[in-house]
């Protein structure tokens, strides 16, 4: 039978694949992520204070700008005069109040008011809506005496802050009712307790033909101070340029949010580097930013097992601040340290006895010394174990 020689070649494809995979993993897990440390710089107390007040101002301005913008947009949708925080801006469109110092084209401000505190000769803005006074009969009403009317009380509500008018005024405005600014001639009250006002223009020859219910009153004229500021503010929000100015605090707040978000991204990168063994949580940049403290328990254990024996205590202190480390972890590593200390001392004792033999000491003397020292170490070990059990019992 003819002999057949079979040549078997070493197949190293598996080794190559394993080597390649190992290199890929090594590259993946050894390459740290790029960290932009500008976002992680520790601020001085002064910088923290300035930053806090800058953020606070931006938030306040943004809320204010948002309310003003909402008020302006809502006023346009409802087809009513621009209103904010109870202040309404309007323009004089006729000469009926020239005698009172108001010319055509003048811009003025009225503020929402408790209509039961309006007096004769007060200057008010109101809508003239036919449906409101068509069935009104002055003969069935009581004329309110001036001395029975309390001092004027202005009102501001959250609804008025958003520029939302009453349903009655919205209906009147949407039905193209005329907005008028006149004086009060007389005040009446009907059987239902609703106030009605007879009005007149100071430059007109006669009183107005209508009676205005309190539901149609927008507000009472106010002059100077905060009214002027609100007048300009309301006018600004209804112009393109003013609207853009109101966007400034919104953009500033958005920029601050982006900066804080970038800081969070850098912190997340550091945390991932520690989890994937690309960094140690003992690195200065990680310690400075408290990396590890905010991890969940499962991740903390994953990071803890990466520590070298001499780093265990430092890792524990960084992962669990203020001695909040779970008792199970503390018990495990405390017992481990006790055992390592005992083994280290036994190793030193063995080396010491070997040196004694080399130096010519008698075996009996060396053996006696070894047994005495070993017994002392074992007794010390037992005492430490007792102390550990007592500590665990006291803290559970």
Q: What would you note in describing this structure?
A:
With 396 residues, this protein is an alpha+beta fold. It folds into three domains: 32-81 and 238-275, no CATH class; 83-225, no CATH class; 284-394, no CATH class. The chain has helices at 13-30, 45-78, 130-133, 158-161, 167-174, 226-237, 240-275, 284-288, 297-304, 312-319, 327-358, 363-394; strands at residues 83-84, 87-91, 107-111, 123-128, 142-143, 178-189, 195-200, 211-213, 217-222. A hairpin with a 2-residue loop joins strand 1 (83-84) and strand 2 (87-91).
Low-pLDDT stretches: 1-9
State the end-to-end CA separation: 82 Å
**Sequence of secondary-structure elements:** HHEEEEHEHHEEEEHHHHHHH
Helix content: 40-55%
Per DSSP, the total helix count is 12
Biggest beta sheet attributes: 9 strands, antiparallel
Number of domains: 3
Average pLDDT, rounded to a whole number, is 79
The helix-and-strand class reads alpha+beta
Q: Could you say which overall geometry the principal axes of the C-alpha atoms support?
A: elongated
The number of strands is 9
Instruction: Please state the CA-atom Rg, rounded to the nearest Å.
Output: 43 Å
In what range is the share of β-strand residues?
A: 5-15%
